[in-house]
Amino acid sequence: MMSNTLTDRQKQIAGFLLVAVALAALPWFAGMLGNSWVRVLNIALLYVMLALGLNIVVGFAGLLDLGYIAFYAVGAYVYGLLASPHLTDNFEVLAAMFPDGLNLSIWLMIPVGACIAAVFGVLLGAPTLRLRGDYLAIVTLGFGEIIRLFLNNLNAPVNITNGPQGINMIEPVTIGSVRFSRTVELLGIEVPALHLYYYLFLALTLLIIVICMRLQHSRIGRAWAAIRDDELAAKAMGINTRNMKLLAFALGASFGGVAGSMFSAFQGFISPESFGLMESIVVLCMVVLGGMGHIPGVILGALLLSGFPELLREVVVPLQNALFGEVLVDAEILRSLIYGLTMILVMLYKPKGLWPQRKGNNAPLRVAA
Amino acid sequence: MDIFLQQLINGLVLGSIYALVALGYTMVYGVLGLINFAHGEVLMIGALTAFSAISALVGINPNLPGWLLLTFGIVAAIPVCMAVSFTIERFAYRPLRNAPRLAPLISAIGVSIVLQTLAMIIWGRNYLIFPATLPTDPIILHTFAPTALADYERTVSITPIQILIVAVSASLMLALTFMIKRSRLGKAMRATAENPQIASLMGINSNKVIAATFVIGAALAGVAGVMVAANYSVAHFYMGFLPGLKAFTAAVLGGIGNIYGAMLGGLLLGLIESLGAGYLGQLTGGFLGSHYQDIFAFAVLILVLTLRPSGLLGEKVSDRA
């Protein structure tokens, strides 16, 4: 016992600190390879948020949602409309009321985006409560397409979404006096805007992870697991399946909304094109690959599937140029091929995902003695 | 142009195609209880194969008559679609037959993405102009509306390809009904749909029956694909998605698992869509225009599933949806 001077608790703290330092240093290392890699990291974090949100619906509650990207779109458009001159340009009433633009605080916009997305989640959930499994999947797919159709066409007669052109000139995030648009000096260190976004996204992702973990091991999480495993039995046990399902939709959607508003601020431009069915499928693919219902697995899935295609882009094009002297199959095509094959192969050979949940993990966490 | 009659004709044409594709969904669902998400992609493969076949034939002899080209296209598309569908069933669905319900659906979505990507690799990303086969001049018909109306309000137009679509769909549906009602295979399919275990106890090779169901549905989808491409004169890798989804809606509307339901649902959905799109602008005071056409299918889908999940002709099946 003497040789092992660290207690479990100390080991935990040491591990935690190591991870924290690694996460904090990550963008600087990625930045050495080029700023595009920090961008990749940021996008990957957005996908982690999305995958965790979808995991609540698909993984925890067992409701297959093929239109999840609609909530991402709702969050993105809410932020985009509130933080760009689009609304004041098109509605004179608003321009008269807010001559200097809306200038809302980010701490207001993120919750507003999340709440509106949650409302859409409930709107979708309410009529589909009675449906199960595959029917639900197709209806949610239809819902996602309807949202996209509206985004694409609501530029006439009243220009709300600016149609296929999308919304541009979206203000970047501003926290206090720090505007996330150029390099700023914090505590004597020059921090590029990309890195600032990284830390913001990381903070939000961690928050979402904590919420998900707490949810999973709560009464609500157990209720979801019960519904997923056998809805009839869950009902018989006195679980209010209607409210629980609606809650899953609402919470999942609100995480999507947060990710969407961040996407909007990060890109500065959004259009309906970013919110197609393929994106919903990409997020679903991440959840499926990682392991439905298992938070670390889902995070792994999101990181793998958002990072791997980028690596591929770096490798495939030069490789083909070297081998054939021209690019035969471009990286974009390979990317979707990977997504498709992933879904088939995971279902055939590893239906529980790469990093599945161990049995009985839904039991309440034991309080450390 | 008489708007009502014109939209009725358009709806009939659209509906015939939906019905043809919906049959594939409904037969597979009837036998396996599986939504073959990749069915729309089979339609796309059919259209693109026909495109290549017709282009090749025109390359050999540019003077061949249009009807021969179209027939050749259809004849080329059918076996390709059948082979694709057979392969999908064998490798992506069969191993998952006893898996949890969502597994085959997720696998089917994967198949759909893979097929689209392969089509993108083979035929490229761009819209391809489908060769003109039949005369494109519309035939103008005079209606019996009151003569007080101006002359142009008393006519409707229909193109030869539209006539062909309705005729071919109707005869294929008739043939299919006959096959299911009268042939040995049809009997085996009905038995398998009723109860797969007992059917196999009666000496029916259920794997063969299921494969046959997929292949027949694929042939219908292939024909539908060629006709969609010929009607709109374009073909591209993404053309299968919307017709596939709408045909699924049609199958649900009619009562999934029921072949008459698929036919009825297809025609109804076609009519709802074209009449709805034709009058949507008037109904909403110009707020929503005809570019919202696609919303009808989704709205119908959501309404049917929430109000009457068994569809118009479906029997009440508990705990399957």
Low-confidence stretches of chain B: none
- The name of the CATH architecture of chain A is Orthogonal Bundle
Whole-number tally of structural domains of chain A: 1
Mean pLDDT over the full residue set of chain B:
88
Roughly what percent helix of chain A?
A: 55-70%
The shape of chain B, in one word, is globular
**Molecular shape of chain A:** globular
State the major sheet of chain A.
Answer: 2 strands, antiparallel
Largest protein interface, residues of each chain: A-B, 42 and 47 residues
What is the C-level CATH assignment of chain A? Mainly Alpha
Beta-strand fraction estimate of chain A? under 5%
Question: Ranges of chain A with pLDDT <50 over ≥5 residues?
Answer: 363-369
Contiguous helical run count of chain B: 11
What Rg of chain B do the Cα atoms give? 20 Å
How far from one another are the termini of chain A? 19 Å
Helix content of chain B: 55-70%
- Judged by helices, strands and strand pairing, the structural class of chain B is mainly alpha
Number of strands of chain A: 4
Structural class designation of chain A:
mainly alpha
CA-to-CA gap between the ends of chain B? 44 Å
Task: Give the amount of beta strand of chain B, in percent.
Answer: under 5%
Briefly, what is this?
The complex is a heterodimer of chains A (369) and B (321). Chain A has 369 residues and is mainly alpha-helical. Chain A has helices spanning 8-33, 35-60, 69-82, 86-90, 92-97, 106-128, 133-153, 193-216, 219-229, 231-236, 241-267, 277-290, 295-324, 331-349, and strands spanning 174-175, 178-179, 184-186, 189-191.
List the helices and strands and how they pair.
The complex is a heterodimer of chains A (369) and B (321).
Chain A: H1 8-33, H2 35-60, H3 69-82, H4 86-90, H5 92-97, H6 106-128, H7 133-153, E1 174-175, E2 178-179, E3 184-186, E4 189-191, H8 193-216, H9 219-229, H10 231-236, H11 241-267, H12 277-290, H13 295-324, H14 331-349
Antiparallel strand pairs in A: 1-2, 3-4
Helix pairs in contact in A: 1-2, 1-8, 2-8, 2-11, 2-12, 2-13, 3-6, 3-7, 3-11, 6-11, 8-11, 9-11, 12-13, 12-14, 13-14
Chain B: H1 3-32, H2 39-60, H3 66-93, H4 102-123, E1 128-129, E2 139-142, E3 155-158, H5 160-182, H6 184-194, H7 196-201, H8 206-232, E4 234-235, H9 241-254, H10 259-283, H11 293-307
Antiparallel strand pairs in B: 1-4, 2-3
